[in-house]
Design goal:
The protein is an alpha+beta fold and 199 residues long. It folds into 2 domains: 40 residues; 158 residues. The protein is built from 5 helices and 9 strands; from the N terminus they run ααββαββαβββββα. The strands form 2 sheets. It has a 5-stranded antiparallel β-sheet with strand order 5-6-4-8-7, covered by helices on one side. It is globular, with a radius of gyration of 18 Å.
Length: 199
């Protein structure tokens, strides 16, 4: 008999006769761990309410929740947040940026040291972004700044000092962690004034 598995990510135990027919978890330990993980995820509702989520491989190849190739330009390969989050395909999830709204991402690579110190150039950008959602990238040494802005085309901007800032608004997916940077809020702000200076 094909019974459902525990809803806690990483637990493969099947629910059996000892569980209620409405049970989602195999044990109290898994239920509590899943609840804590959900609370720790700071991903804003402005992102999680869109069905624009994919899974990703360790080499950043986009995948569907069914382990097929996904595309950042084909909505048929995207899923709802909960479905993508629950899937075990690949190594993580990603959010697809689309021209249907003004959600943008500023990608700052290699700006965060292991002790949590932010490079001065990145600290300036984060400060100018204001009270919008910022999360630590999967590498652990970069940041993703999310907000609303009118951006026609994504670009990579090389700045004096040898660093680069990437700005994306459409046709890309961003590898997500839900790992909020410091005290950034779980909401998106209009960051148009900032994006206009990133040229």
């Amino acid at each position: 008999m094909n019974t459902p598995t525990c809803a806690h990510a990483g637990c493969d135990e099947r629910l059996g006769a000892r569980h209620s027919h409405r049970a989602r978890f195999c044990s109290t330990r898994c239920r509590v761990a899943a609840h804590r993980a959900a609370k720790a995820d700071a991903t804003p509702l402005e992102l999680t309410t869109h069905a624009r989520w994919i899974r990703r491989s360790s080499t950043k190849v986009p995948l569907t929740v069914g382990a097929r190739p996904a595309s950042s330009t084909d909505p048929r390969t995207w899923s709802a947040y909960a479905e993508a989050k629950a899937s075990t395909v690949g190594v993580g999830i990603g959010f697809v940026l689309s021209d249907v709204d003004d959600i943008v991402c500023i990608d700052l690579d290699h700006c965060l040291s292991p002790d949590g110190t932010l490079a001065p150039w990145a600290a300036d950008i984060v400060s100018r972004a204001g009270a919008t959602y910022v999360e630590i990238s999967p590498s652990g040494d970069g940041l993703h700044i999310f907000g609303y802005a009118s951006v026609r085309q994504g670009r990579r901007i090389r700045r004096a000092g040898g660093y680069a800032v990437e700005l994306y608004s459409d046709g890309r997916y961003i590898a997500m962690t839900g790992n909020r940077f410091r005290n950034a809020p779980s909401s998106l702000l209009n960051i148009n004034a900032l994006t206009e200076t990133l040229v």
